[in-house]
Each structure stands twice: as structure tokens, then as C-alpha cells.
Amino acid sequence: DDEKYDAVGIAHGTDTLVYTATALALALHGKNPEKSGLRIPVCITGAQNPVYEQGGDGKFNLENLFRVLNSSIEEGVADVLVNFWDKVFLGCRTLKTSEKNFDAMESPSYPKVGLIDGTGVHIYKNLLRKKENAEEKLNIAPKFGRGVVSFELAPGIEPSLILGFITSGGVAAMILKSLGEGNVCSEGEFSLLPAIRQSTNEYMTPIFITTKFVGGNAVATHYETGYEALKAGAIACFDHTDVAVDVKVRWLIGNGICSSIEEFRKAMKTSFAGEVTFLK
């Protein structure tokens, strides 16, 4: 019940923090891409060191969590954020990029939405959703489906491996983390095109193409190998992070938003929580 709270802050382990941030963004903003029901700011932080460790980042990040929330309330922000070290990110665009650096989070495909410096916390509200534009009542979509399989592609991956998962049953969707911006092998014995066609046409199982490279954009039309995958029935994921693709597909399934491959294709072009930029 967001009417009882001005904001929500969450301290979280860093390894899965971005998964939680993305899941919360989708669940709280809800199914309507035109208007969110979230009316308060939610911010998540973590640390590379325990909060009690002297000289670490735990206390610093936790203190800044409350400062970010206070500034977000003042600015009328109603979005899901991540603060880490001296930066603030949109939750569903954030990735962990380091195991040891204090500056461990990045947002490679979307500008940072805030900065923390000696003069205070600066929230860039023009990059965020606002309470004044939200629906009058929170209408969450909190369910996440199962049966989503993710493959990181490498040269020599056998198509039979992909088909083996699909034909075994229990797979609701498959994500292929591609080489480059949506490129998959399209010739010879390692061509994945027949497997993609069979999965989408015969088994009606959507195949999503994303990229494993930080900041990549799986448009999959700049090179023939990517374009052929789309022609075979694969779904491009554009500038979603690989984490956002995984979480979003589960969210789409769990909340019954998509029931056909074409509906999945449309949904991956749709921003429900700021997770993708689709240029027509």
C-alpha cells in the first residue's frame, strides 16, 4: 500500500541486485506501458564490503540510499532506482560490471539518472517517471513464469543442443546470448536457423536474441547472420540488458501478457518500465 509510505529503500546483495531491480521495476510499474501505477520512489543499494568494515563502501552506499530517496521524494520521482558509489541508475538498465571496484555498477545503454558529489544528490528527473503522471492506484503485476532457458552462444554450438531443450518439454522460452549484435551461425552444420524455425513454427516456443556484450544492442539487422535469424522467427531484444531480457520474458509469461510469438515480439519493442529504447 504505497499510500502509507513516502519511499522504499532496500539493501541487497550485489550478485543478484540488478535482477531484483529489474523485477521490481516491471512488477511495480505494471502491465500498462502508457501509465504506471507506481507513485513513490524505490531505491536499491548494496556494497562490495560489509557495512561494518572500516574504509569500505557499505556505510557510504547505505547513507546515500536515504539521501537519494529524500531527493527523489522532493523531485516527485516515482521509479525504481539503484544507487551505488557516487551514481544513481534506472533499476531495469543497471548491470554489475566489477567484483572488486567500489564503482561496480553501470548503465551502459541508458544515461545515469543521478549523481552524488560534495554538493549533494542530483536527480535527473527528466529521465525518470514522476508521481504526477502516475495512475491513482498501484496496480502491480508481480508474477514471474518458469521454463525460461538461456544459452550463451559460442562458435561450434550444436543446433541439436537447442532443439534438445525445446523438444524435451517444459521450456516456455529460450534466450540466445549472441556474438555481437544479434549474430548467430547461419551456414553449415552449425547453422542455428533450422532449430529456430522448428522451435517457433512447430513447437511455438519463442527464441529471443540478445547480446552478451555490455552496452550491446541486439537489433540483429546490421549483419546478414543476424537478419537471417529474425527471418527464421527469432525475436530481437534491442538494447535490453541480458538481465532485463531474462527477467522480462519471465514476467511476460507469469502475468499472461503474451500468448503468441507475435505478442512476444511486440512486447520486446515495448517499454513497460523504461527497460528498452525501440526506435521505429
From TrEMBL:
Which Gene Ontology molecular-function terms are recorded? asparaginase activity
Quote the InterPro entries the UniProt record gives.
Asp/glu_Ase-like_sf (IPR036152), Asparaginase/glutaminase-like (IPR006034), Asparaginase_C (IPR040919), L-asparaginase_C (IPR027473), L-asparaginase_N (IPR027474), L-asparaginase_N_sf (IPR037152)
Q: State its Enzyme Commission number(s).
A: 3.5.1.1
Q: Which Pfam families match?
A: Asparaginase, Asparaginase_C
All copies of the Asparaginase/glutaminase C-terminal domain together span 148-268
Has UniProt tagged this entry with the keyword Hydrolase? yes
Query: Which PANTHER family does this chain map to?
Result: 60 KDA LYSOPHOSPHOLIPASE, L-ASPARAGINASE
Q: What is this protein called?
A: Asparaginase
Organism source for this protein? Candidatus Iainarchaeum sp
Q: Give the lineage.
A: Archaea, Candidatus Iainarchaeota, Candidatus Iainarchaeia, Candidatus Iainarchaeales, Candidatus Iainarchaeaceae
